[in-house]
UniProtKB/TrEMBL annotation:
Keywords tagged on the record: Hydrolase
Organism: Syntrophaceticus schinkii
Protein name in the entry: Predicted hydrolase
Positions of the Metallo-beta-lactamase domain: 16-105
Record carries keyword Magnesium: no
Domain of life assignment: Bacteria
GO molecular function, one term: hydrolase activity
InterPro entries: Metallo-B-lactamas, NDM-1-like, RibonucZ/Hydroxyglut_hydro
Length: 124
């Protein structure tokens, strides 16, 4: 993965779902969305570190899993990272199984439910 400069301190990391990056003067950054898999999130993390950029914040534009499931990796590895999302997205981030119910009209048995853990977030 490569980090591509847009303008000023604004970049993106190209992937199946592009990830926005804003770098502050202290080399800490804000990610805009975090991708779908832990593997993708790990590659984003490696890309940031190779460029001496360190995660501080995440903003999720919405809760489609290809935009926010990478949060799980980052919150595990960066517990001090703050995650921001809008109020309407809160129920889906706190209860990810709701996405399956919404998109697939399904509510699987608990034994079959493989939904991710809830995200820790700050509502904006």
């Amino acid at each position: 993965m490569n980090i591509v400069k847009i303008k000023g301190e604004t970049y993106y990391i190209k992937d199946a779902t592009n990830v926005g990056v804003y770098v502050f003067t202290d080399s800490k950054c804000l990610l805009i969305d975090t991708c779908f898999t832990r593997g993708q999130a790990r590659k984003i993390d490696i890309t940031l570190k190779k460029n001496n950029i360190y995660l501080k914040y995440i903003i999720n534009t919405h809760t489609h899993l290809d935009h926010c499931r990478g949060n799980l990796y980052f919150q595990k590895n960066y517990p001090q990272c703050k995650v921001y999302a809008s109020e309407p997205e809160k129920p889906f981030m706190e209860n990810p199984y709701l996405l399956a119910a919404l998109f697939y009209s399904a509510s699987p048995l608990k034994a079959l439910n493989r939904s991710p853990d809830p995200f820790l977030l700050i509502i904006i």
